[in-house]
Amino acid sequence: MGDKAEDETSFYSNAEGYWRDVPPTVDGMLGGYGSISSIDINGSKAFLNKFLGEGEGKTGCSCALDCGAGIGRITKRLLLPLFSTVDLVDVTQEFLDKAKHYLGTEGRRVENYFCCGLQDFEPMSGRYDIIWIQWVIGHLTDSHLVQFLRRCQKGLRPNGLIVIKDNVSFEGVVPDEVDSSVCRDLEIVRSLVHRAGLQIVHEEQQMNFPQEIYQVHTLALR
Q: Which keywords describe this protein according to UniProt (predicted)?
């Protein structure tokens, strides 16, 4: 058991160390693939628009949470245009500091900048219409991901949604020693979602990304 705790501690501390050395730019956030940012945002917008609006079962537009927000790329281009207020959470303080400048005048609608690893983060109860979790679940162990999703569920407003958008491997769990993360296949991600007591209400593959990178899937959960 001691070994497991030690492994877990180094898994998180190595990731923090990796991100501390990454430049606080869009290219840095996207591992050198800054050119895919617009394709990514447009895909996410089309996905989200299926759920937002007025009427039965629709998700509100009052407050969103950007998990693993980095410098606020998703907040700036996806969430602030759609929601009245946004909160950001990221483990790297330098990124959050940079976000305050990067977001420009619209950044005044950001209410909270939380510097915290998601394994320790507790969303405020009943606050969020959307909790957006992109390219960060690989930095959580299975049990921490399940626990985090359960806490996110408590953070949702009525008809709120949790959205995971992430790389999926072809088969099994593929570790990345460089940034201390893992990439799981879709079946494993789905099983962890179900373990957290959530249902997948919609799922899509992001199209038009470069061939050489992992497939990226987006899952809406309630």
A: Methyltransferase, Nucleus, S-adenosyl-L-methionine, Transferase
Residues making up the chain, counted from first to last: 222
- Are the C-beta atoms of 200 and 221 separated by less than 8 Å? yes
Q: Is the pTM of this model over 0.90?
A: yes
Q: What is the domain extent for residue 125? A: 2-221
Q: 106-130 burial, b if ≥16 CB within 10 A, otherwise e?
A: ebeebeebbeebbbebebeeebbbb
User: Is there a binding annotation on residue 73?
Assistant: yes
Taking alpha carbons only, the member of 57, 111, 120 closest to residue 79 is 111
**68 labeled binding residue:** yes
Structure confidence by residue, pLDDT tens digits, 139-197: 999 999 999 999 999 999 999 999 999 999 999 999 999 999 999 999 999 999 999 99
What is the rounded CA–CA span in Å between residue 213 and residue 203?
19
206 is in an annotated binding site: no
The CATH number assigned to the domain holding 145 equals 3.40.50.150
Number of domains in the chain: 1
119 assigned binding-site residue: yes
Whether residue 91 is annotated as binding a ligand: the answer is yes
